[in-house]
């Protein structure tokens, strides 16, 4: 089994790291939050006092961080690449700007370090269950090296293309997800405003041409799905501010490529309004509350 350094033990990183421990890998972990580290050391991982200490002698380095500035700060500003063994493989799982992923990948290549960007889809539930989808950018040979590790954390692995391509594909997916959730919320709110039962309407949509992931697996209306965040006060899951971040990345990518994303920009504005109203830490499916308030 591989000796792995895992940096970033947030809502996604912690269960991903835990699955690697359960699979028998030797894990050294680092996070700025002591409680997050303790959760992994209680499961059998070794704690490191810093990211630099964590990567000493590592065969694989995995990072799961909040944003582009954190990834660039870690690998470039703090020069973690200069402390990683040249024989190691770096798997960067954060969702960041494609240009940032390419920038860090170029720096790794200069040092002779193999690196892939491998953002994930599947949410915290998928991270816990080990059923995440990895969307990979980088060289095929590096992905082949990564597969035995990725397969302990995920169910589907896609090679999107060269460095940064994983980020582009992830951004496209999440932009569509944000649009779908906003549209689903609007449709359900319209139905309820006209006297329909939200569960009945959801069942109808799930068997009709409007069917989508939100209505079938992550319904935004409270009480329709017992295990969805909507039925738990919109706690946990994928936060509004995280969705807003990803929609912002989509806007940046569109500007860079001179592409048109009118629905993506509309969704970004809706989530921005929702966040500004104090809902930034709620699950993104709480966007339904923005529509419901407009109808009240």
From TrEMBL:
The entry lists its GO molecular-function terms as: 3-hydroxyisobutyrate dehydrogenase activity; NAD binding; NADP binding
Under the heading Pfam families, the entry gives: NAD_binding_11 (PF14833), NAD_binding_2 (PF03446)
6-phosphogluconate dehydrogenase NADP-binding domain segment(s): 3-161
Per UniProt, the keywords (alphabetical) are: Branched-chain amino acid catabolism, NAD, Oxidoreductase
For this protein, the parts annotated as crossing the membrane are none
Span of the signal peptide: none
Could you confirm whether the keyword Oxidoreductase appears in this record?
A: yes
Q: Which InterPro entries match?
A: 3-OH-isobutyrate_DH-rel_CS, 6-PGluconate_DH-like_C_sf, 6PGD_dom2, 6PGDH_NADP-bd, HIBADH, HIBADH-like_NADP-bd, HIBADH-related, NAD(P)-bd_dom_sf
Q: What family does this belong to?
A: Belongs to the HIBADH-related family.
Q: What is the protein named?
A: 3-hydroxyisobutyrate dehydrogenase
The record lists the organism as: Achromobacter denitrificans
Q: Tell me what gene encodes this.
A: mmsB
């Amino acid at each position: 089994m591989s000796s792995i350094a895992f940096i970033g033990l947030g809502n996604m990183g912690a269960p991903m790291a835990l699955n690697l421990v359960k699979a028998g890998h030797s894990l050294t972990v680092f996070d700025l939050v002591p409680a997050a580290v303790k959760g992994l050391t209680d499961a059998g991982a070794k704690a490191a006092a810093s990211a630099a200490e964590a990567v000493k002698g590592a065969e694989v380095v995995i990072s799961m961080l909040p944003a582009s500035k954190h990834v660039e700060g870690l690998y470039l500003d703090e020069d973690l690449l200069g402390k990683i063994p040249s024989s190691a493989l770096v798997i960067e799982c954060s969702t960041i700007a494609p240009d940032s992923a390419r920038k860090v990948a170029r720096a790794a290549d200069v040092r002779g370090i193999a690196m892939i960007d491998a953002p994930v889809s599947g949410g915290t539930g998928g991270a816990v269950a080990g059923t995440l989808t990895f969307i990979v950018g980088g060289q095929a040979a590096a992905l082949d090296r990564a597969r035995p590790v990725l397969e302990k954390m995920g169910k589907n692995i896609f090679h999107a293309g060269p460095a940064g391509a994983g980020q582009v594909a992830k951004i496209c997916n999440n932009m569509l997800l944000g649009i779908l959730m906003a549209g689903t919320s609007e449709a359900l709110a319209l139905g309820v405003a006209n006297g329909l039962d939200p569960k009945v309407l959801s069942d109808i949509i799930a068997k009709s041409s409007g069917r989508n992931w939100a209505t079938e697996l992550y319904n935004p209306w409270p009480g329709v799905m017992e295990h969805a965040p909507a039925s738990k006060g919109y706690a946990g899951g994928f936060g509004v501010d995280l969705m807003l971040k990803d929609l912002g990345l989509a806007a940046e990518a569109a500007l860079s490529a001179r592409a048109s994303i009118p629905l993506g920009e509309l969704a970004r504005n809706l989530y921005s309004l929702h966040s500004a109203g104090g809902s930034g830490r709620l699950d993104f499916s709480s966007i339904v509350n923005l529509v419901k308030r407009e109808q009240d």
